[in-house]
Amino acid sequence: MAIVVQFKRNIKQGFINFWRNGWVSLATVLVMVLTLFVFGSLFFSNVLLTSALKNLGDKVDISVYFKSTAPEEEILAMKSSVEKLSEVKSVNYVTRDQALENFKERHKENALITQSLEELGSNPLGASINITAKDPSQYESISKFLESQNNQSIVDEINYKKNQVVIDGINSMIQSSRASGLTSTIVLAIIATLVAFNTIRLAIYTSRDEISVMRLVGATNNYIRGPFIVEGVIHGILATAAAMAIFWVLLWLGHEQLLFLFVPLSPVFNVSGVSTSQFFGGPDLFVYFLSNIIWITLMLLAVGIVLGVISSLIATRRYLREK
């Protein structure tokens, strides 16, 4: 029963402290909104970066071109062995007939090539398999596997070495992007957390005399902390609601017009009128936001409440230690 009474008292007093602090409470919520906006922006930046890197990696593959005399059963056997590799995401088999059709389609405007094929009367092209890895860094091991197979009698060319410069460049870009993204996330998160903590500490500073009086009359530390913890939870809930509303409006505005809210180098590019999905080749952020709104809300709410509670606990420690 005493626990229930204490809980009700903490809730009531927490709301009283929140309203009594007035402008300080408002400033605290606004700072926490900024903090959550930074966290949310970093989250959406990671969504765009991950999608862009995935699309970039999907456009890279290595191809094995077979001789025109290669038996199809041997080609299919090699395709099957490649598909069993853990590094391989997919293997696309292009038959000789399909290769010829693709070649004709690419050169349908060139009358000389079309006429030469008609005069030849046979299909000069061989079959091929296009291999896509789960990660661009795995193409080298796949290439080594292909070279280790004794298939010189049917394989005409493996184009890994021709694409190696591009693949290595993409690997370097992905690694540097991930490293810079992680670094910026940690730095901005620390800055935002420190700003929010100092603002909450200022709000509790205004109640230092009240804390001293409660200590003099023998109130326990938990009794004193309770309302401030509730106040921190209130800050987190209100900040989350405001941050979600801001994201809703900004992402809705950016649904048709790319606002570059999450792209620091936006002035460099002249792509006005381009949507986020068109520019990054990834998901439309507004659609992504709506489809994951519950999960995003819970994420920001957890960050906001944890930040408010921990900041309140740390900020009250000083006054609870004073004799």
**General form:** elongated
List how many beta strands DSSP finds: 4
The number of helices is 12
**Portion of residues within helices:** over 70%
Average pLDDT, all residues: 75
H/E topology pattern: HHEHEHHEHEHHHHHH
Poorly predicted segments: 258-280
Radius of gyration: 31 Å
Description of the molecule:
There is one protein chain. The protein is elongated and about 105 Å long. α2 packs across α12 and α9 (221-253) packs antiparallel against α12. The protein folds into 2 domains: 2-57 and 172-321, no CATH class; 68-153, Alpha-Beta Plaits (2-Layer Sandwich). Mean pLDDT is 75; it is low at 258-280. The chain is an alpha+beta fold and 323 residues long. The longest helix is centred in the middle third of the chain and has 46 residues, at 160-205. It has a 4-stranded antiparallel beta sheet. It starts with a helix and ends with a helix. 71% of the residues lie in helices and 7% in strands. It has helices at 2-21, 23-58, 72-83, 96-106, 111-120, 139-148, 160-205, 208-216, 221-253, 276-280, 285-291, 293-321; strands spanning 62-66, 88-94, 128-133, 155-158. It contains 12 helices and 4 strands, in the order ααβαβααβαβαααααα.
